[in-house]
Amino acid sequence: MTLASPAAVPQPLLALRESLGASAVLFGDEVPQRNRNDWSTQPPAHPLAVVRPVDAAGVSAALKACRAAGLAVVPQGGLTGLCGGARPEDGWVALSLERMVGIEEIDPASATMTVLAGTPLELVQRAAAEAGFYFALDLGARGSCAIGGNLSTNAGGNRVIRYGMARELVLGLEVVLPDGTVMTSLNKMLKNNAGYDLKHLFIGSEGTLGIITRIVLRLHPQPGCTLSALCALPDYDGVVRLLGAARGGLGPLLSAFEVMWPDYWQVVTERVGVRDPLTGSARHGHYVLVEVQGTDEAIDGPRFQRWLESLMEEGALADAAVAQSVADTQAFWALRDACAEFFPTLGPHVSYDVGLAVKSMDAYVRACKAALAVRIPGCESVYYGHIGDGNLHLVAWVPGLSVEQQPKEAMDEVIYGLVREFGGTVSAEHGIGTAKKRWLGHARNPEEIALMKTLKAALDPLGLLNPGKVV
């Protein structure tokens, strides 16, 4: 069935196709399946068209055409989002940046890289490494996600504790506004206080205020060595003390602090089948992966070893394993990243990304696990996260139920209700999209939400750019 015949397509889109080329503007059944949804669990949509420009001028022309036709537009990058932010609705236009890929410049003097927004994160990382630099943003979808999408959701990832969120890695942007205006602000300077820092309007706004097309990224020196240890602790108080000791004893070397609760540990070692690198069979209260990035292994290796030994002598650690090779480090991270294997192991489940004060996390976990079990008989849940930067992940499921049968609404009410009670956030690094829009008020007060709506109305008065998302 043809979803949109030429006769049903507004004239501005037909003219856009003439201008950009037939391969850049696809209608109806021509729209690829990938452009009909992101990684959220919502059903695929039927957009009127997908537009695939190659530069900011093409993005501008597309937005002007859609504005003339009164059509809603959803920006799309790698489509790896989990909250529906890049999912179109039926009859919308999907504006995909999939052809805007490439490294425009690496400036060694300013330690910056200028890239097109559709460039995959892994390509950015590799280009930085080949130039002798390090791009610090890293997450599991690195091979698929696009850097523009990473910025639109202010992605976090594994090393926020040292390098910060995505917004800390950006110096300049080129953005196309909803009316088609191209705002070019490709700043390379760390210090630039000439008026409002406009880039922060668009980073984390999930494509509702403008479409990011080019980016100046901040690079760091390549680490001379990476060292890691897997630590077992008797309780959460010990985890908090270990975090303080790592900050104080390792300083800027500390690059990751990943915590796994015992329910998560049991699932990944016994059900997923990841090897337990710790000695003995004792179960512990918590497990922590500590990673440092140094400049010289001959200096930083012994320092890291002495730090761990002092903790063992003090009785702060119940057990520990130190990586002796790159393979060991990868094996440690395999435990933390085993959540990617949960679907074939656990079956259908629901994943959550929340933020809480570090001191409150264990109390939240205990309250949440108990409340889920009471509200939803048979519900199981496991907990893990970055912790050092206040980010907790959890997975909840009722065994034997399909994806559609999982009681997600009841889970949401318990999980986000407790987030509000504990003064946390319903989204630490995945964004709001449509999936969490209902719960935005649990993390933002009415005055904050009103200002968000004011900004949206000012930049997109017709409400055509990703409408209905975030606020």
UniProtKB/TrEMBL annotation:
Matching InterPro entries: FAD-bd_oxidored_4_C, FAD-bd_PCMH, FAD-bd_PCMH-like_sf, FAD-bd_PCMH_sub2, FAD-linked_Oxase-like_C, FAD-oxidored/transferase_4, Oxid_FAD_bind_N, Vanillyl_alc_oxidase_C-sub2
GO terms of molecular function: FAD binding; oxidoreductase activity
Keyword field: FAD, Flavoprotein, Oxidoreductase
A matching Pfam family: FAD_binding_4
Domain FAD-binding PCMH-type, first and last residues per copy: 43-222
Cross-referenced PANTHER family: D-2-HYDROXYGLUTARATE DEHYDROGENASE, MITOCHONDRIAL
The protein, known as: Putative FAD-linked oxidoreductase
Species, as recorded: Variovorax paradoxus
Organism placement in taxonomy: Bacteria, Pseudomonadati, Pseudomonadota, Betaproteobacteria, Burkholderiales
